[in-house]
Design goal:
The chain is α+β, with helices and mostly antiparallel strands. It folds into three domains: 87 residues, Pseudouridine synthase (2-Layer Sandwich), CATH 3.30.2350.10; 135 residues, Pseudouridine synthase (2-Layer Sandwich); 71 residues, PUA domain (Archaeosine Trna-guanine Transglycosylase, Chain: A, domain 4, Roll), CATH 2.30.130.10. It contains seven helices and 19 strands. The strands form four sheets. Strands 1, 2, 3, 4, 7, 10, 11, 12, 13 and 14 form a ten-stranded mixed beta sheet that branches. It has a five-stranded mixed beta sheet with strand order 16-15-17-18-19. It is elongated.
Amino acid sequence: MTDGIINVNKPEGWTSQDICAKLRHRLHIKKIGHPGTLDPMATGVLPVCIGKVTRIIEYFDDDRKTYHACMKLGYTSDTLDVWGNVEGSGDYSCVTEEMIMSTFAAYTGIIEQIPPKYSALRINGKRAYDLAREGKDFEIRSRRIMIYDNTVTGIHLDSGEVEFDVTCSKGTYIRTICDDIGMTLGCGAVMSSLERTASGCFRAEDSHGIDELVRMTDEELAECMIPMDHTLEKLGAVVLDDNRFTAFINGNPSGTGYRVVSASDFTAGEADKYRGCSIYKVYSGGIFLGTGYIKGRDLIPAKVIYR
């Protein structure tokens, strides 16, 4: 049970770090982390990486996230959700279903989004929410995000609530989507609930509650643990020749002693040490050894997991 990923269904009121701390105590393992923070009042899919899997968290960064959210028309707040301090109210009596549908339909593709001031972003080394609570004046720059799909699933004009499903890139704030759409409609809106239903290959229907996990036996927990290479869907696969096993696990290039068995959809950024090369899962004798990239004709280790 020392290395793997558990798909946790985070309950409302827990921070993502609360979940990690609980599993750290239950599993007696220090190295535990997660890709993609969920706000305390949000629920849903939170993949928790255990042991050596913490070394590959960066490969989950670009995973698409899917959320089911609800927003309430007619309000604005400092946190952009119903748990913040109300800053204003607006009349939504003139808002129609057609207006809502067309506004959501337009909110797709590449979007310039300004994250909330009550967020975990770091501004000059300090969390934005800490600066906001201290009443400090600071600016957060807009960032480019991608909205792949944005579908309205329910409109309740009598209560001013709108439900929707959104699939988006990393760094997207659903609270900001609610605020932006509220401003476009002219009445304001705040997020009233949020559930992450998918994160990459992890789905809500396959997740486990934290209380359920804590009560499990070691054998049951082991069955919930997903092997790390099974979750790296975007990475292609390379099989090493038998005589290159030792070279790879010692961090040395493997020359041409390998064969590519599947293509990779994951390309590391130009700014990092891989210089835009595709990243592959590396196997030998059916054993997952880690990840590597091909430069010229050489297979070069990126992260050696098998040691």
